[in-house]
């Protein structure tokens, strides 16, 4: 009796916890409501199965508990019942899978009108690059990376020159505009995730990965690294500011282009190249040991 | 209802099984230390696995202390934390669960349950254990090299696993890779034994479809391991080359802290494919023996045949096969070709069907049974609850779309702990309470057993259920601390502290269990022969605990399946597999 009651309590307690839990999705701020719907649907279908199975066990444990002289039934198989259960389970699985694959098809199909920008990850900071007036991001390679060219852009590529570089962990995005997030890492695996957007993807050195999302709510949201990237993983943060397109345009205008930053670097280098180098080396060392 | 008779009175006259030449130990050392007896090797494997598992348990306490009370235990640095989670994961999955299920239970039960005198290659079996022990020692040694053990996460993803931003990149990662390679070599020696013994050394009448499900589970799991571990082995060797020799299997051109490294052209995602080609079958390497054993526990203690035996066997085989084509569901957001998602989500959800059938058949075994609520039965019931709970959250993560927001959150941590941590361990406990009387001749203490069961079951459930919801909220896994994240409310810290306290209590209950194992060895109630009135051969040996060579003068002959419980017409509610049909006592009602 006690065991049966405990089993019922586990089933009921789980359901009660589910509905009373204050820990739930953080309110969504992108177009991916369909992902939430898939999760909710899965909760319903699997929740019913879980409760049914545990309650059935509780019933059996109570109803068929040991009694002196009772004899268990001897039924090695019941093909009809087994095929019924197989069929129902298959139907449930199809019911979960079909909407899942449908939404996945949207996830992997980037809309034509999406504007591209690049997220660059390195231990343990984010930076960003937007295409300039030509609308095309220039090519890049790790071999090009230097103090003056932290993004590793190809200086000979005409498309690079007007690229807008944001050497800061804060990025701005326009509201209601589908964005294709191009993801590039220059050292190890990272993962770009804004929980309010629901969409994420790993950054993999040696290749450019992507996902897309349309911000649908203005605000400031945290960017977290979601793929273990070394001892500073938990400190690798950023912010995304979602705002009206005009404000976004104004913000973008203030950011330097690649050509500008190269010119500045050349001018600066004449004065204090030695100081600069020392500073950068010191920082890198501190970063690799202290954190 | 369609009844299927299990030709339970008919002996299958196989060709005479030749008696094997046994190695007879001549000294104490060859009997108990360098033993070639599978039963002794089983105990050696189990004790070693449990010992290293205790280290894994202690590491989990340290992890929980940091998560529950950040900044209180300031001796835990971020580097320590990442080393703890890495070593905890690897120890629990490989060195505890795999070793205990296959090296421990496999060695003990296979020869006894199929009616063999020993494993077919006893010498290689002995080597298997000693190489495993060396692997464990190499793993532990990584605490004593400069930089300490690796903190790359148990998945060991390059490039970070071998770069300086990760703790243990100096020596720890190499020792980890070497230890894994050794483990795999040792396991292969044992694994070949288990497979060949099941296929070749079964006694007369023990057809494949009369084998207990325990043996089916261990057998298929071993086949998976023999096919899956080589992928990890090769991956480990290649990463060792990348680290030591500067090859670029997994390493593209990288700028590390401003410095261009001497690598080019390798693929980090390639390693992930190799890792998970091993890693997903690994889940079933742990789960299938648990499936098998729990089937037998339920049947024996409910005094009822396992429901749908043939379906259960085929489900194990189908799950084993499918487990090789689902691996990339761990990589939906890894940057691999996103179109793989369609294929792997489909195969992954298909695997839910045979798995669900097993769950139904376990519960239908209880139905119309005569359920003894013994400790093994309690653990078996708790297994079903936790396994169903952990299994259904797999349907979230396997269904590619739902995985996107949940991957790398605490939801994943809760899922795999429930389904391949808590659930299989509950079977381990149930199985130990069930077979301890056979191994020692004494029962484990019932009161301590009740305490152990309730604290472990309810405690572990209370630990991992709420963690799912943290993942839903967006709390990342593998975070040393959660400072300054705007969407995380303070209540998360309260919940984490609660989880830590419960986890420590559950951990304490395991110490009671260990104490029980030690004390009952000499002080436990004598078990006598076949205390659970089971049908399988291991309980029908000439002496308890079974001696050298397992069975007496002649090997048993098997006449029926392993689930002849409460057969109508028979006097007792069980008929041993080796009892000749003309000697089965009847109740007089049917002739």
Structural class of the secondary structure composition of chain A? alpha+beta
CATH superfamily of the largest domain in chain A: Cupredoxins -  blue copper proteins
Q: In angstroms, what is the radius of gyration of chain A?
A: 27 Å
Note the beta-strand portion of chain B.
Answer: under 5%
Task: Name the CATH homologous superfamily of the largest domain in chain B.
Answer: Cytochrome c oxidase-like, subunit I domain
Q: Estimate the strand proportion of chain A.
A: 15-25%
Structural class label of chain B: mainly alpha
How many DSSP E strands of chain B?
Answer: 2
Numbering strands along the chain, what is their spatial order in the largest sheet of chain B? Answer: 1-2
Describe the structure.
The complex is a heterodimer of chains A (291) and B (591). Chain A is α+β, with helices and mostly antiparallel strands. Helix content of chain A is 43%, strand content 19%. Chain A folds into 2 domains: 2-64 and 81-108, no CATH class; 115-290, Immunoglobulin-like, CATH 2.60.40.420. Chain A has helices at residues 2-20, 33-63, 79-108, 158-161, 245-253, 258-290; strands at residues 115-122, 125-130, 164-166, 170-174, 179-185, 190-193, 200-203, 209-213, 219-225, 237-243. The radius of gyration of chain A is 27 Å and the shape is elongated. Chain B has 3 domains: 36-266, Up-down Bundle (Cytochrome C Oxidase, Chain A); 298-525, Up-down Bundle (Cytochrome C Oxidase, Chain A), CATH 1.20.210.10; 528-591, no CATH class. Helices cover 60% and strands 1% of the residues of chain B. Chain B has 15 helices and 2 strands. Chain B has a two-stranded antiparallel sheet with strand order 1-2. Chain B is globular and about 85 Å long. The chains are: A alpha+beta (291), B mainly alpha (591). Chains A and B meet through helix 1, helix 2, helix 3, strand 7 and strand 9 of A and helix 3, strand 1, strand 2, helix 7 and helix 8 of B.
